[in-house]
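My main concern about presentation is that the manuscript never shows what a single data entry looks like. Each protein is reduced to its one-letter sequence and a matching series of backbone shape codes. For the editor and my fellow referees, an illustration may be useful. For illustration, here is how one protein appears when written out as sequence plus structure tokens:
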Amino acid sequence: MSAITRGLLLLCAAVAASAFELRDGDVVFHLFTRANPQVSQPLLPSVASIMTSSFSVTRRTIVTIHSDGEGVSGNFNAFVVQAHLSAEDVNVIAVDWSPGSTMYTHGLGNAPQAGLIIAQFINILINTFGYTASQIRIVGVGLGGHVAGIAARNVNGEIPHIVALDPSLHGWTHHPEILNEDDATVVEVLHTTAGLKGYDYPLGDLDFYSNGGQAQSGCGTDVSCSHIYSYVFYAESITAEVVGGRKFVGTACQNSEEAMNLQCTGPRDSIFGGSATKTDDFGVYMFLTNFVSPFARD
């Protein structure tokens, strides 16, 4: 990417940050459980609202964060919420920050504040209900991948696992709040539109580049299609555990350039996604997929 292009993206970020601001009520939390898997239960960031909900402190919690132009009922949550509920009895808290992310520049400017609001909500669970950060996974797509990192680093305790699905590129190259490997015990990243819509260089402890990370099988030059596959692959990695399906097994790479050129020759010793919390996985990996579902080759 040229210096001029990066400069324009930074200018775009500065304009976005100064032009928009989240207001009270612009970030809404929706609870899904196996008892109410289709109709969400709104949660307010208050003790009373949480106490009267079906949230359970004995269950693990998955927090999902969408990107720009979506909401709680978008495709991302349609795939990810149901996948997690099919595999495990968990609380799924889907964050809806759509009023602050209708446009990309809008969401870019609001991402830091959205992350702080999410962290404040999680801290209510921890400080008031005795919930522990170790029971939480945060899953974000696009802008939501960076918001996940911002939220995690402001939680009272260490989040064990972040999954960032094709985290956004534009405006983040020199952004002070960019997702990084210190945001959780393990930060796992999947790149599906690297250098186009999604970030190209590794951001986490564990970075996977599916089909080279830039364009996904069957999408051609449709970048939006390749971006969508990030959460399609993630959802399959969860549901495959229920039906005994194949896994997305990664081949180790020396660096992201090798991964994007499909030149990796290292051991096949890391698996993308899945419901288990990862503890010590690290490195850069690539994996290939089938053209149609099921996409994992094993």
User: Anything to note?
Assistant: The CA atoms of residues 192 and 213 lie 4 Å apart. The longest helix spans residues 104-129.
